[in-house]
Amino acid sequence: SLPLQAIKSLSELHQKPSHLRFQYGTAGFRTLGSTLDSVLFRVGVLAALRSKRLDGRTIGVMVTASHNPEEDNGVKLVDPRGEMLEASWEAHATVIANALTTNDLLDALDSLVRTLKIDLSKPARVVYARDTRPSGESLISALQDGLKAIGAEARDAGITTTPILHYLVKAINTKGAKDSYGEDSEEGYYTKLSEAFKKLVAGRRRLDPLIVDCANGVGASAAAKLAQYLGDSLTLRLENTSITTPGALNHACGADFVKTTQKLPPSLTDHLRPGQRGCSLDGDADRLMYYYLDERGTFRMLDGDKIAALVAAFIVEQVKLAGLSDEIKVGVVQTAYANGASTKYLAERLPVKCVPTGVKHLHHAAEHYNIGVYFEANGHGTVLFSPATQEKLATHEPSTPAQSTALNHLINLTQLINQTVGDALSDMLLVEVVLAHKSYSGVEWDSLYADLPNRLVKVVVGDRNAFKTEDAERRLVSPPGLQTKIDDLVRKYEGGRSFVRPSGTEDVVRVYAEAALKAQADELAFRVAGLVY
Ligand code: NG1
Ligand code: ZN
């Protein structure tokens, strides 16, 4: 049975603020860091129960609020294969987090154990990590109390990136197996990525140094370590590495700043020369945005859609060169936020699917292809190779030296890419590989297609739950009548497209619009926002 006494006495030290309601959303629990103490304690207990339910396989816990402000924090669970928590457990997490008193918590846990038939005699194994946020340290000790209360075997992965924690979870759970994901250590991660990178760029002209904006977050230490493993195969110039300066995290820098303002972080003005490539990570290094300044000094952004286009085209080409086009089908997954021009470019070349916002939707849809490329426009994404495809690559007999080379490239890509989750550092190396192979600078990459001007605005409404969508969030079904009004407006704009959906992470409704001209995209967004308000 549950160790009620231990849970009870430790839970008293981590009482739930009575006036707050927590929700396990698309990014786990995420809110002001100072309010999350009870949530972390309970997540510790829950992670252990999830592990027991899965026969003692290791569960991950990541404490981060990603690109959000420094005072925010959050926590999410990682399933044994390194993927997001199974959807049905999101509701269990919400129930456990909202139990009012310690006794209510014990009742909720007991009922969970009974309904899910959790065998409490099974071992519980959990690995956890956090980003650089100041609130992280005390939240980790609340988590540790939860793990201790239920007697879990816990492993502290320290301060690291979200994708490294996902990597560790998968590596731990595949240790010693035929499909081992790699050494279950940070060193194992850096070694795996850097060795695959070196093989993929061997014999090619060295790329110019790359400027990396680390968002003053955990990506700074990870990128510095990665740089050591890369040696002279790629030079990284790290900027915004002030991880201990109060207030610096994600402030006027990082991938989210770049995507939402469509501007160069001011701190990079003196560092990025025209034509030079730069990129920004977010606060937990799972999102990536590229950019460069053209010859007139104008900022040119290369977002998640541009990364998807670059990478998908390259993989299709390598599959063809390997002589495997008939057997291996490549597909792309996007959300409604993908730039219309990117969808057009991709759909002319390969199957493209649109799914609702949220990594879990993209990830699951990408699993349906032999090789699935998924990226959100904001720079979160990865490439998945199905188990059968990996097997095919490992066993296929090439008939020419050219086929053999392409086959090896594909095998090395399976090693370079962090297939558990979007990973800014792994994606950055992937982009660099393609640029090296194609001898592209930012200019050639950028010219794959021209972005349609677009505008994203937030609208604070009385009740965002009144907004219900269909067709992968591209159309509103409620409030009634609103979609017709949006359609009428959109028709007035050349190349116009607009949609409205409630945010899953903030208490707002988002309005997206694009049109042939920038001023029109802005106008359309604001007029649609006017309808919503
Ligand atoms: P919401 O708040 O549901 O729009 C945002 C991002 C998502 C995803 C999640 C999780 C946009 C428009 N939305 O979701 O793409 O990254 O956060 O972090 O960028
Ligand atoms: Zn992030």
Automatic annotation (TrEMBL):
Its cofactor is Mg(2+). Pathway: Nucleotide-sugar biosynthesis; UDP-N-acetyl-alpha-D-glucosamine biosynthesis; N-acetyl-alpha-D-glucosamine 1-phosphate from alpha-D-glucosamine 6-phosphate (route I): step 2/2. Residues 59-91, 97-176 form the Alpha-D-phosphohexomutase alpha/beta/alpha domain. The active site is at 66 (phosphoserine intermediate). CDD domains: PGM3. It comes from the Eukaryota. Substrate binds at residues 376-378, 501-505, 510. GO terms for molecular function: magnesium ion binding; phosphoacetylglucosamine mutase activity. Belongs to the phosphohexose mutase family. Keywords: Carbohydrate metabolism, Cell wall biogenesis/degradation, Isomerase, Magnesium, Metal-binding, Phosphoprotein. It is an enzyme of class 5 (isomerase). Residues 185-288, 303-440 form the Phosphoacetylglucosamine mutase AMG1 domain. This is Phosphoacetylglucosamine mutase. One of its GO terms (biological process) is cell wall organization. It catalyses: N-acetyl-alpha-D-glucosamine 1-phosphate = N-acetyl-D-glucosamine 6-phosphate. Binds 1 Mg(2+) ion per subunit. InterPro entries: A-D-PHexomutase_a/b/a-I, A-D-PHexomutase_a/b/a-I/II/III, A-D-PHexomutase_C, A-D-PHexomutase_C_sf, A-D-PHexomutase_CS, AMG1_II, AMG1_III, PAGM.
